[in-house]
Design goal:
The chain has eight helices and nine strands. The protein is of the alpha/beta class.
């Protein structure tokens, strides 16, 4: 069970069924189109390659500025990788649409780097770790004891002022603000903050695997850093997920995670379509559901 699969189940359990149990493959992008998720994937590659030489070392503003000289080349490499092109030829006679995407990638990366400059000095511990964050999770449904695997691919783990931070990059409309804890799991899914659920999932798995505490989830919404990177309630003067308030929130999330996973494997609970039609707008299975 990945973080993405868990958020899919929480948003619409029927979508989860189509994708993860029935095995209905999502349609591939047309070759002449570049979808938003491709830009997101390419940005992850850009940031991974950018910081790769400095893993384990202190990041300074001077390092970022010097490394920026190679940013254009890194963006070309990342896009070529996502489009499965010859990286050596990616910069020659680039189609107009790809040129636009390269400019968007570079601007998104620069927003992250400007934010990171203000954060310096800090240390990056890991980038896009695809193997270490896997854990066995016990569930009990109808008297049957089972173990399932939970795993997450974390964009970045860094340390600032002694605090370990889980950093998740997002290029879409994800927000830092959420209504309240119950709204994250309401059946109608009108106030789900999928980015918060996903980042809490990463944080939970990381803490369990590493045996650490007080790890902070941070969201890098590259469209706007004005609100910072910490999650917070929508209401004026609302709770900011940091320190003790974060630890209490994590405890509630762990309980809800257990509840939802046991529900998922309960044979008596059906997979149901979400009541929130807004979630169906970009769902690849909406024609099957006649939405």
């Amino acid at each position: 069970m990945s973080a993405t699969a868990f958020t899919d189940y929480n948003t619409c359990s029927l979508r989860f069924f189509y994708k993860n149990i029935a095995g209905l493959k999502e349609p591939k992008d047309l070759p002449d189109r570049i979808e938003a998720n491709l830009i997101g994937s390419a940005l992850h590659t850009v940031m991974e390659v950018f910081y790769e030489p400095s893993v384990g070392a202190e990041i300074t503003a001077d390092f970022i500025k010097e490394r920026e000289k190679k940013l254009s080349d890194i963006c070309e490499f990342a896009l070529a990788k996502e489009l499965k092109l010859n990286a050596a030829k990616a910069g020659t006679q680039t189609p107009a649409l790809q040129q636009i995407v390269l400019q968007v990638l570079e601007q998104y990366a620069l927003k992250i780097l400007r934010n990171d400059e203000k954060l310096t000095p800090f240390k990056i511990e890991e980038l896009e770790n695809k193997s270490d964050y896997v854990m066995l999770y016990p569930i009990d449904t109808e008297g049957k004891n089972r173990n399932i695997w939970l795993y997450g691919i974390i964009d970045r783990v860094d340390v600032k002022d002694g605090k370990i931070r889980i950093v998740d990059y997002k290029t879409g409309k994800d927000q830092l603000k959420y209504k309240d804890f119950p709204s994250l799991f309401e059946d109608q899914a009108k106030d789900h903050n999928k980015a918060l659920i996903q980042t809490l999932f990463y944080t939970y798995v990381y803490e369990q695997v590493k045996g650490r505490q007080y790890v902070e989830p941070h969201l890098y919404t590259v469209r706007d850093f004005k609100e910072g990177t910490l999650f917070k309630e929508k209401q004026k003067g609302g709770l900011v997920l940091q320190d003790q308030s974060l630890e209490a929130f994590k405890s509630m999330f762990a309980d809800k995670l257990n509840e939802k996973l046991n529900e998922l494997f309960d044979e008596n609970i059906p997979f149901l379509q979400t009541e929130n039609k807004e979630n169906c707008s970009y769902c690849p299975y909406k024609d099957i559901c006649q939405r």
